[in-house]
Amino acid sequence: MKWMTLLRWLALILLATLTAGLALSWAPDRSVDSLKERWAPAPSQFIDLQGMQVHLRDEGPRDDPEPIVLIHGTSASLHTWDGWAKALQGQRRVIRMDLPGFGLTGPAPDGDYRMTRYADFIAALLDQLGVRRAVLAGNSLGGGVAWRTAVQHPERVSRLVLVDASGYPLQSTSVPLGFRLAQIEWLKPVMGKLLPRRMIESSVRNVYANPDKVTPELVDRYYELTLRAGNRESLTQRMKLRETDAQAAGLIPTIGQPTLILWGTEDRLIPEPSGQRFHKEIAGSQYVVLDGLGHVPQEEDPQRSVAEVLKFLVTQR
Fold first, then answer.
1. Which of 1, 177, 299, 307 has the smallest C-beta neighbourhood within 10 Å, fewest atoms?
2. Which structural domain, as residue segments, surrounds residue 100?
3. Mind listing the pLDDT tens digit for each residue in 9-32?
4. What is the pTM of this model?
5. Measured between alpha carbons, how far is 204 from 303 in angstroms, rounded to an integer?
């Protein structure tokens, strides 16, 4: 009898623990309007493009003949470039946006997240802003979008800056938990309503060489923008296309624009051999290794990483 009573108590404790865990992880979609106050203050703006309200920041002198366009990576947003934008906008026009499927821009109406589609999106954005040619800089997925745009629309791209860019088949030594879960089809109904903040924190810390640099506000940003209505479904759709993207690696040797390649030595998601391969296959490219930095050097150490960009822009102008 005592054993039965003990088992009932254990069952109740387990049920209470599971209920509390679900309650803490419960995270339904949030509307873009509920997120704007914190994540889209001035100079943020929203422009109508391809059926979306694209979240954009356009700063610096308007007479710059070749603005710098900064393109973020998977599950990131234009905020990842805050440090670079601050360093560049005194002398250069700096344009950055939330890509379709991410940030406050949210899902593409047609659900198309192929790289060819992203390249066309960048060209359309340049048209909308009246920019004939630009320097494209991208991190991770954004790096893949940048070089694909240079191949697809070469007349629009004067130079490239690839920061731990995607392009080759992944040989990751560690993948953020959030990315791994997004690839599990049967988890979609669950992940659409549950999102433990600790999982986002773990994922962000995973791409930093020094996890101590991951602040609560940084985790808040990734967490809250992931909750933007439609973004979780978009991430699932985007992750399905990664292997297809890698099949386009044969286009990389056709890149003709002057290119700077930056790579963190501690990148475990896209390890440094990919950077070396970009350097080998893009004729005349410059290759700079950033010791002690991970997959997002522009966030982890914006001053050190943008210093290389400033030198590249001066020498190439």
1. 1
2. 35-316
3. 554 454 443 343 444 456 799 999
4. 0.89
5. 20
